[in-house]
Amino acid sequence: MALTADKQALIWKTLNETRGKIEPSEYKNYIFGLMFYKFLSEKAQTWLDSQLRGETWASVWKQNPEKAAAFMQTKLGYVIQPGEFFSDWHAAINVDQFNITNVADALVHFNQEIQQGAKATFEGIFDDMDLASNRLGSNTQTRTKTLMDWISLIDQIELDEDADVLGDLYEYLIGMFAANSGTKAGEFYTPHQVSDIMARILTAGREELPTYSLYDPAMGSGSLLLTTASYMKNAGVRGAIKYYGQEVITTTYNLGRINLMMHGVEYNDINIHNADTLSSDWPDGVRSGVDSPRMFDAVMANPPYSLKWDNTNREDDPRFKSGIAPKSKADFAFLQHGLYHLKQDGRMAIVLPHGVLFRGAAEGRIRQELLENRHISAVIGLPEKIFTNTGIPTIIMILEKNRTTDDVLFIDASKGFEKQKNNNKLRQEDVDLIVETFLKREDVEKYAHVASFEEIKENDFNLNIPRYVDTFEEEDPVDLVAVSHELGDVNRDIAQSEADLLAMIGDLAVTDDSQPIIESAKQLLGGNHE
């Protein structure tokens, strides 16, 4: 983990000391915003040091602000004015000259000077940092003090592009605050072990491709996109990997943009939207009456489970030609959307609840058509309680558009995990076994089975895993002779104990008051042997 225990303790301590009226679920908006501004500042300073050759940024800016701004925009897509770097804020704090307006003015200037071609990536990315909120403090002085504490905190966190610092911090804060936040804190983040399984399956045999496009229609913090890209050889090459995604929650959309860029993804390789995937298809969509959807090499998703959605008037939507998912459960709608945008030789992985495997009516008809068209490649059953926001067991379904076979691999990985305090965690050996089993595509007793289409058809296209993978463990047969001998030994022990107790009672001194009690005890114990 990129964050040491000492840094975790420092973050927790500072957040508690500056909590005020801020809800735990809101902390991340300020903390991640400040982290990102520090990241952008350091990136800009590193670039300036390589370009200015001893001249200061302040002097270049003073000579011609417009030219200086265009100079930085061309390379970075954004501009940070002299005196408005994160290090300038920290320096002002050290000499007692910092005010909350230092941050407010810098963020306004940042938003005003984004390059036109980078607006989709950077515009409004700090909007969740409400610096006028009374939750930061009742007046400017207390709000300034709160911000000073946070800036001092962030200054002590090293930002390494090659480490999932933001993801680690986010996951850590989820663990610390989820119990108090009153929200589904885990909806923004997919556990790394699950992301890793999906990423390794999606990229298997394709790691050497010079270019690769990734799409997550419910991207959350973007962890699935980042993990998948990390397995591609050219992940660090500008322009080699293209990141596409949609996220309906604006705060989470901002978090996703931040997360991608803090992992070194260049702004012109990012193409994500703040939109409802099911009601607003990918913007390419239908143009001039012609359907021309954008297609991707890999699609990955961990959408909200069994979400209610507006399924009216969807009959003409080309994404849902296999059928319309019920309005009470959008699981198959997300699946169909992703499959629709998959290239003919692409691969898709999606996390879903078990219900999609066996529910009937419209979902049953969609499932049957997916199977008849050879789209479903594998169903992987995961353990329960591995997600922060739900304890239900889930599956990973692997899909392809142009398979030559119609069998389906079933993997029951529900029993391979490490039990922790409030949840379960997939161990590295569990992750490796799942991926290796998928790649080998062979039967493994009590773990995996490759089911033929005929076998699935005989089961009425029900994909419930226990129908195909028998994990039942027979109990050892009971040795009745041994049990009989044990019972005999127990009875003899009881008889000896009662005899010893009778002897002890017989030795007791008898009084008029105790006589009836002693006689009753003798009769009771003696009667057991009649």
UniProtKB/TrEMBL annotation:
It catalyses: a 2'-deoxyadenosine in DNA + S-adenosyl-L-methionine = an N(6)-methyl-2'-deoxyadenosine in DNA + S-adenosyl-L-homocysteine + H(+). Its EC number is 2.1.1.72. Gene3D superfamilies: 1.20.1260.30, Vaccinia Virus protein VP39 (3.40.50.150). GO terms for biological process: methylation. Residues 162-476 form the DNA methylase adenine-specific domain. It is an enzyme of class 2 (transferase). Residues 9-152 form the N6 adenine-specific DNA methyltransferase N-terminal domain. The keyword S-adenosyl-L-methionine applies. PANTHER family: SITE-SPECIFIC DNA-METHYLTRANSFERASE (ADENINE-SPECIFIC), SLR6095 PROTEIN. This is site-specific DNA-methyltransferase (adenine-specific). It comes from Fructobacillus papyrifericola.
